[in-house]
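To the structural biology subgroup,

Please find below the input and predicted structure for Thiol:disulfide interchange protein, which we are adding to the shared reference set this quarter. The sequence is reproduced verbatim from the submission form. If anyone notices a discrepancy with their own records, reply to this email rather than editing the shared folder directly, so we keep one authoritative version.
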Amino acid sequence: MNKLFFNLAAVCALLLSVGPLQAQSEQQIKSELQKKIGANTKIKSVSASPISGIYEVMVGNDVFYTDTNAKYLIQGEIIELASGKNITEQRQADLNRIKWSELSPANALKAVKGNGTRQLAVFSDPNCGYCKRLEKSLQQLDNVTIYTYLIPILSADSAQKSKQIWCSADPQKTYVDWMINGIAPSGKSDCTTPLDKNTAFAKTYGITGTPTLFFTDGSRFPGAVQIADIEKKFSSLK
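Predicted structure (tokenized):
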């Protein structure tokens, strides 16, 4: 009985030691890989992947892989053949999620269509061509509330237009008039705006391009997303 107890205790001790040893190994891999790729590219984390001997490397919100010796940096996708699941794609989606509750509606233009039950957040630059294309497509949606967060990242003129839009008597109408009808905003631009807050939020969450859409589950869709894909996503949230 004493021998059995000793063996069980040894197994438990071994299992408890796996975590720290693995963490130490991952830290060593991260350190070694960081030396090789240089200080200009910051590695956020290194962790075990589903494949033995292959480690996930996080650089910004991008997923790469490396080997135990940090000799190779692998760019590609891991697909589980049994299920067809794209492990990398799912991981990337999870990393790019935000908490919907962290958005501040007070800092956004707001458009309500129909009953407004479905919700969508869009980060947009008024001089972004793809944003204009998306805005035209969004006009086809019904029963939706769209929050548009202006982030003037393209030029000084983007900042000026964003201020003029926000400071107008009807910001949402002024925005749509410009994005769809080409009626340039005019008037004052010296009111208090949330543009700095929106830009800071975008930087924190790695929103580097416009348009970028977010749904209530926190999932991120970059670019001028097709209406069919937006409707499909809304359907999956029901």
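Summary notes: Residues 1-21 have pLDDT under 50 and may be disordered. The chain has two domains: 21-95, 100-236.

Regards,
Lab coordination
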